[in-house]
Write a structure and sequence with these properties.
Blueprint lengths: L6 E4 L4 E4 L5 E5 L11 E6 L4 E5 L2 E5 L3 E5 L11 E6 L5 E5 L2 E6 L2 E5 L11 E6 L5 E5 L4 E5 L2 E5 L11 E6 L5 E5 L4 E4 L4 E4 L11 E6 L5 E5 L2 E5 L5 E4 L1 H4 L6 E8 L2 E6 L2 E5 L4 E4 L11 E6 L5 E5 L4 E5 L13 E3 L1 E3 L6 E5 L7 E7 L5 E8 L5 E5 L6 E9 L2 E9 L1
């Protein structure tokens, strides 16, 4: 099995912007960060940091450091990332064009047609229900649910799913499965039967449904290629598009819920905001948004909106003017470690003598911390670390001291 390789890059330069409405912005792209592509297809933010999916690999940003994964240097099955989801057990699921990646404390595992009964390797969406089942939407083979090692498939041949091309799968608070499809509208499955809404039997403005969101008022929001529509629990429909709200956009690529009745939508005309009663647009013309081609959104725990562009990288936006992203760490210095490769002990030299204690951390190729140690500097720059208990593979060592951070890489034989 190919060993996963992790790239950590410290203290990248950041562009800060301020617009006339006092909102605060940060911006990352391939010029000022290790972001693997300026096309950001999906974003997941949790209490550990932010996962960023691109068309050229996967990135994780903890507020200070970047960790980059691709199919050549890690277990990532494909560089084209379609969706990222965190289930209620803390596992991360990554949808790609060559299978579904599961990231857990046990490591990385890919579920594909070569090693499981998953119906397709072209995974467009992933979600999980309250019972721990993993649901996927595929491009050409419908949807499927993973329960343990078993996959249950629903497609146009064995169910009333209207299309096997699936943009998104979402699950509401009652456990109902909702499926946004290519040219089939949106369908819901309650475990017993299917109900489909399309342009023929509802006010849905387009049969391409790319996103589904449920707000705290139990209202379903559907993003289509001709605007966004909301459906109340009582069956009332409201359509919002360029024709009736006066803003220049057509396709809705995704949405996030800020609070009850308040949402943001990623569109081909910028960020569409709904405050509960009115719409507004954040664009490159009226803000520091670098591009109106917005493909993905996520909200972090600090209330920052992460904005993925189709051509200009990743932006972080806070309309209140206060970004809560952690301050970058001090610039890392290189760490000299030998022998490298090593079997039992690793000797390393700190480039700067520092007072007090230092902390050593060793991280494996899947991003797990496998060894920590406190050392007393005592005016010494040379230290020895016992690594005999580690498995064979590539590791990253970081030393945090009063003078900053030193980092290196070593191979354990």
């Amino acid at each position: 099995m190919k060993a996963a390789f992790l790239t950590a890059i410290f203290a990248v330069s950041v562009s800060f912007f301020n617009s006339a409405d006092a909102a605060s912005w940060m911006h990352y792209d391939q010029d000022n960060s290790p972001l693997p592509s300026n096309y950001v297809s999906t974003i997941l933010s949790d209490d550990e940091g932010t996962w960023v999916g691109t068309d050229n690999g996967l990135a994780f940003f903890d507020g200070s450091d970047w960790f980059i994964y691709d199919s050549e240097t890690s277990e990532l099955p494909d560089n084209n990332i379609r969706d990222i989801h965190k289930d209620n057990t803390g596992k991360i699921w990554v949808a790609t064009d060559k299978g579904l990646l599961e990231i857990s404390t046990d490591g990385w595992q890919t579920h594909s047609t070569s090693n499981s009964n998953i119906p397709s390797d072209y995974i467009r969406s992933v979600a999980s229900d309250s019972e721990g089942n993993i649901w996927i939407g595929t491009w050409g083979n419908g949807i499927a649910a993973k329960n343990g090692n078993n996959w249950t498939v629903y497609n146009t041949d064995n169910s009333d799913l209207p299309s096997d091309g699936v943009f998104t799968v979402e699950i509401d608070e009652l456990g109902v499965i909702w499926v946004g499809t290519f040219n089939g509208g949106v369908s819901k499955f309650n475990g017993l039967g299917w109900t489909t809404y399309n342009t023929s039997n509802s006010e849905l403005p387009h049969n391409h449904v790319r996103s589904i969101n449920f707000d705290q008022n139990h209202i379903a929001w559907f993003g289509t290629e001709d605007g966004v529509v909301r459906k109340t629990p009582g069956g009332h429909w409201d359509v919002y598009n360029a024709e009736n709200i006066g803003y220049s956009f057509h396709t809705i690529y995704g949405g996030v819920i800020e609070s009850a009745g308040k949402l943001y939508f990623a569109t081909d005309g910028g960020i569409l905001k709904f405050n509960g009663s009115d719409f507004s647009m954040v664009t490159s013309q009226n803000s520091s948004l670098p591009s109106n081609n917005v493909r993905s959104l996520a909200l972090d725990l600090n209330g920052n909106l992460w904005v993925g562009s189709g051509n200009d990288g990743l932006s972080i936006y806070n309309p209140q003017g206060t970004l809560g992203v952690k301050e970058p760490l001090k610039t890392a210095e290189s760490l000299t470690a030998y022998p490298n490769p090593t079997s039992n002990e690793l000797t390393f030299l700190l480039p700067n003598k520092s007072s007090g204690n230092s902390e050593i951390t060793v991280v494996n190729g899947t991003g797990q911390t496998v060894l920590t140690k406190q050392i007393s500097n005592g005016g010494l720059s040379q230290h020895i670390l016992d690594v005999s208990s580690l498995s064979t593979g590539t590791y990253f060592i970081s030393v945090y001291s009063s003078t900053g951070i030193s980092q290196g890489r070593f191979v354990k034989l």
